[in-house]
Amino acid sequence: MDAHPHSELNGAQPELTDDELRELGFAQVAPPNSSGIRIIIVGCGFAGLACAIESVRKGHSVTILEKYPQVKNVGDVISFNFNSGRFFLRWGLHDKLWPICGHASEFRIHNPSGELLQVQPFPQAQFDSYAYNGHRGEIYEVLLDHAKSLGIDIRLGHSVSEFWEDPNAGEAGVIVNGERMSADLVVGADGVRSTARRLVLGVDDKPKSSGYAIYRTWFNAQAAGIDRDPLTSFLAEDKDVLYGWIGQDVHFLASNCKRGTSISCVLTHKDDADIDESWSFPGDRDAVLDIVKDWDPRCAAILSKAPAFVDWKLVYRDPLPTWLSAGARLALIGDAAHPFLPTSVQGASQAVEDGVALAVALQLGGKSAVPHAVRTWESLRYKRVRLAQLLGESTRDKWHRAKPADRGAAMDLPRPEWLLDFDAEKHTYGAYAGAAAQLAREGYQMPIDTLP
Ligand SMILES: Cc1cc2nc3c(=O)[nH]c(=O)nc-3n(C[C@H](O)[C@H](O)[C@H](O)COP(=O)(O)OP(=O)(O)OC[C@H]3O[C@@H](n4cnc5c(N)ncnc54)[C@H](O)[C@@H]3O)c2cc1C
């Protein structure tokens, strides 16, 4: 098994038995509001929802503020691998999620002319967990319904305009729709264009172009006639498979989901033109087809059947020096803290891990030590997240600069055990005491300074 590169960061981690971990609270549900910790979560994406659900399980009280007045079924394919899927399982959502997800059992990787370079096995169940890959809107709805069933206070149409903290008073808060709200902790789960970052950094940091954009589409296979065209009928098989074509500075991924009834396509290509990012900006069909015009004819045949495309400009940011405000009463999680490249296939998973681990750290630290708990959480998370981000960069470079002779396992999408065989809840219970003691001993250091 690969080494867990995050583990040496926080000194010795006690080897606790499962019974000892359970004694601390692992995989247990605490009585409602038992910690006395009040949390405001800004943003009801996957990071915010996961943090809210796990926080309620750990006995905190939560309010979510979301700027959208209603939940829209926007987006296309999103992936949760074993490291985050285990929480959906633990929350009892497997039976709702599994039927709406794709179950690609293998990844078939081609060069642009259609020569098969590698067939990578893609197990969908491993490490006592499942992978959930499906339509973002459909998966989101399951989590949102679950959060509502737990009685979580979710306020839609609440766009936060200001974040503040008062370390002396031991609280932080927001201004929303003219109202001033306060809590023990504010969680900025407000996505890649986060306004919470301003309070953390003291300045506005602008996203930068990643140098790439992605044409994305998700459509109904039958209505598009996928099964009636000999060039695309392979996608209509009753077997979920992920297909990839890897070229110079371009890669195209297509999959059939839900037993061949839905088709998902993402075409990543060079694009420095714009750094605007939207999940609904329309893509130009001719521009899409132009990219694959000299490729394996199956690529154009699939793409030409899509009713529409989203032109998604992929923004990126340098790692933040810290995810916390000066008084550690505001914590950034998910994309607000660390946007991911899609080639990592970890953005949503790390957002969920962040939220779960934070809820655990707060339970272990207690209401009287919220800033210490939050700093300990950051020290446990930062390096792992950075390593996962870097994996996305190296995979993109590997694919986009592949040599004609490259094939076999060298083309695989990395699925390292240190990343996927990881339980952020269990890890936090096991590692918290050591990391908290180290922090108390050595004082707080910006986590970026702790990277090798
Ligand atoms: C509409 C939408 C569609 C997406 N579709 C896909 C997809 O198809 N495939 C994919 O891989 N990824 C998609 N993503 C991104 C993906 O969900 C995230 O990269 C990942 O899940 C991390 O989630 P997050 O919760 O950190 O951020 P996000 O999912 O971006 O959630 C952030 C939330 O914060 C809210 N928010 C922002 N500012 C404020 C404010 N001031 N006050 C209150 N609320 C605020 C936003 O409305 C949003 O709901 C989409 C994101 C969005 C918002």
Automatic annotation (TrEMBL):
InterPro entries: FAD-bd, FAD-dep_Monooxygenase_BioMet, FAD/NAD-bd_sf
Domain of life the protein comes from: Eukaryota
Domain FAD-binding: start-end pairs: 39-382
Keyword Ribosomal protein part of the UniProt annotation: no
Molecular function in Gene Ontology: FAD binding; monooxygenase activity
Keyword line: FAD, Flavoprotein, Monooxygenase, Oxidoreductase
Keyword field contains Flavoprotein: yes
Pfam families: FAD_binding_3 (PF01494)
PANTHER family: MONOOXYGENASE, MONOOXYGENASE, PUTATIVE (AFU_ORTHOLOGUE AFUA_6G12060)-RELATED
UniProt record similarity statement: Belongs to the paxM FAD-dependent monooxygenase family.
Protein name: FAD-binding domain-containing protein
Organism: Dentipellis fragilis
